[in-house]
Amino acid sequence: MGWLWTILLQLGARVSGFRGCAVGLTNSRILPRAPLTKGTRAALSDLGTQEVTSMDKEKKQGLRGKLNKVVLAYSGGLDTSVIVPWLRENYGCEVVCFTADVGQGIKELEGLEEKAKASGACQLVVKDLKEEFVKDFIYPCLRAGAIYEREYLLGTSMARPVIAKAMVDVAKEVGADAVAHGCTGKGNDQVRFELTFFALNPQLNVVAPWREWDIQGREDAIEYAKKHNVPVPVTKKSIYSRDRNLWHLSHEGDILEDPANEPKKDMYMISVDPEEAPNQPEYVEIGIVSGLPVSVNGKELSPASLLSELNEIGGRHGIGRIDLVENRLVGMKSRGVYETPGGTILFKAVRVLETLTLDRETMQVKDSLALKYAELVYAGRWFDPLREAMDAFMEKITSTTTGSVTLKLYKGNVTATSKTSPFSLYRQDISSFESGEIYDQADAGGFIRLYGLPMRVRAMLERGL
Question: Where is the Arginosuccinate synthase-like N-terminal domain (predicted)?
Fold first, then answer.
């Protein structure tokens, strides 16, 4: 009966081919192959030789090794399109393309399945991560007050771990033994992706083609695509390198590589030029509970919906543009221009409310830890125990940061005009210049003498007193 098992195995290969992906046989006992009889050969001939060749190819090791199935972070652009056949050629593997919707826009998601399969992928998985992105990644950074190098609101830094986390989940779902990304060897994103992979599944293999292949630029990639019959995306090539999600839009490259050059006005995409913004200010009220925004102008919204609303409001007033030369994790400096309208409004609102709800010592400690928090996020250490511990601290000390802040938006500027909180530490009866029962101004004399005692003693020593 050994010949029957051989035929069944061949039929299994044919069925898997109809599904688009090879099906691995797990927990199965493979019987020793029996000598082929004339009847067996005839049966195999009826199946055809294509399936046999297909099975032989699947067993074949790639040029650089052998992997079973790889989940690739996929955008549909030229780079990720050529990575698909490159993975198959070099690792003899199936490729599952993964795309995360983090608010980059509906146009970025159109036609992806056709592109992926045309490139040789066996499957495309798309997941809507917008709510998770805002709730579980953006909001903790907002609550912590995390800003990298004084200005950068961490738009790309926060998005990479949520995407990488989803890739690990997809790898488990499809039975992949590896993940891959299209990050270059010069940037921060390679670190952010891979540290997340390490933290969530250290057994996964990680492939980074840009650190391995001979492709040096766009022309090389186009040539490789033609050689492997991969349709070259016919999208217009932007002169800028951009990254867009629900939090921000970044611009790098071209004339921005010289810090002496002013950005061109037509470069910006989600915010109007402040000079061309409305001549009348707009007021917006942000409701906050325990350091996190919950409403806009009295309307409660989900995290992603709230941010989208503020992006539209802030964008029409030219809010949230910054031009920054930052220090990359890999050591070099890079220049980027960022548009973060909704995020800029939210950071202002939370900080203003904290002036009512946090005392001086707590605020100073929080601000000092916020620097380290931002550094960890920028460096891709989202799942580092230190960041998680700091997050617990931030959650605790902002538990009373609840209230409402009204902001005036006018030609690129955000100004707080009103702030209220049921947990406000501000007491008008104490702070008033009028005399009060709680604060006796005469007590200040003794306080000053004690507080200034070290300075007084040092001055006496210097004068020989």
Answer: 69-231
